[in-house]
């Protein structure tokens, strides 16, 4: 009984030990499994974390790249805008843009120079507050104008000719967002065309009329001869009438002489002409005849020595000064100006009542005069003399007076002297 019990105890103990060992083994296997699972979980978490960090780094890199592209695009847009602005401000034509309500949105420097306007004074203003007729009428109708030439008076009162076109202003999608007006100053071109037309007309007229003048002078000489005979034979009562005939014959002879001078081809006898001495001589001669009723004022830069025909130039300048004096029967001021820029400009201005536009457009035509005893050839001869020197004659007139300007090429200048 004791032996069975001991064996049983031993077996039980061994069984218990076995169970304990199996349990421990299972526990160890389970622990190793859990540790392995934990390591696996840790590895997966790390992978996710690493992937996340890589993604964030990639996103930041792309963000930096996008920021760089944005700055490049902004710089390029700014560069294009500056480039377009440079082009707009550099073109010699005037450019003005309007929105749909015809309010001024942009004006380049050429437009301001041509129209005597400042950009800050016209921006955000309606077209009607900026432009006068006929330009305002063209803008008002919003019609496409491919080419138009109009006379216009600027804000400063200057009369100019404009060549303009007007078209719709569109955005990149082709939608009309306003109007754009482009124009150029045709004033000098119109003046040149007018001078050339006048020169051609005067040339044709001169060739035709030279023969007529000679034919008139022959019978006039006969009349003059008979008049002298009548003066010798006339009694005291008839002398005044004969003297009146003789006086009229002298007038006619002077007209024919002027006419021949105008009709005869101009052959310049060129020499060096001191412009200062020439002006002083002309002024002295006119002052003596005007008896102090007119004051002469000289306004000039350095007075140059030029190549020219001194006799003809003196005749032309004297003629302009005499006209200025006669335009002021009650007295006034004659201003003589000489300035050199792109050309040599010699101006003679009076303070008379000015000339109407219809008169101003015809004053260089031969035989056109507003003077009671004038021949109408004085200004025609002035024009011919100046043109023969390669120059032009301009005239501006208002209720405050008239200015004649002789424009001569700078190539005629020999040397400059002090004023």
Structure summarized in a few sentences:
By secondary structure, the chain is α+β, with helices and mostly antiparallel strands. The chain is built from eleven helices and 13 strands.
Draw up the topology in text.
Blueprint: H1 2-90, E1 94-99, E2 104-107, H2 109-115, H3 119-122, H4 127-130, H5 135-140, E3 145-153, E4 159-170, E5 176-185, H6 187-233, H7 239-263, E6 271-274, H8 275-290, E7 294-300, E8 305-308, H9 310-326, E9 332-340, E10 344-349, H10 357-360, H11 378-388, E11 392-398, E12 401-408, E13 413-415
Parallel strand pairs: 7-9
Antiparallel strand pairs: 1-2, 1-5, 3-4, 4-5, 6-8, 8-13, 9-10, 10-12, 11-12
Describe this structure in words.
It is a single chain. The protein is of the alpha+beta class. The chain has three domains: 94-185, PAS domain (Beta-Lactamase); 191-263; 271-415, Histidine kinase-like ATPase, C-terminal domain (Heat Shock Protein 90), CATH 3.30.565. 55% of the residues lie in helices and 21% in strands. The protein is built from eleven helices and 13 strands. Strands 2-1-5-4-3 form a five-stranded antiparallel β-sheet. It has a five-stranded mixed β-sheet with strand order 7-9-10-12-11. Strand 1 (94-99) and strand 2 form a beta hairpin. Helix 8 (275-290) runs parallel beside helix 9.
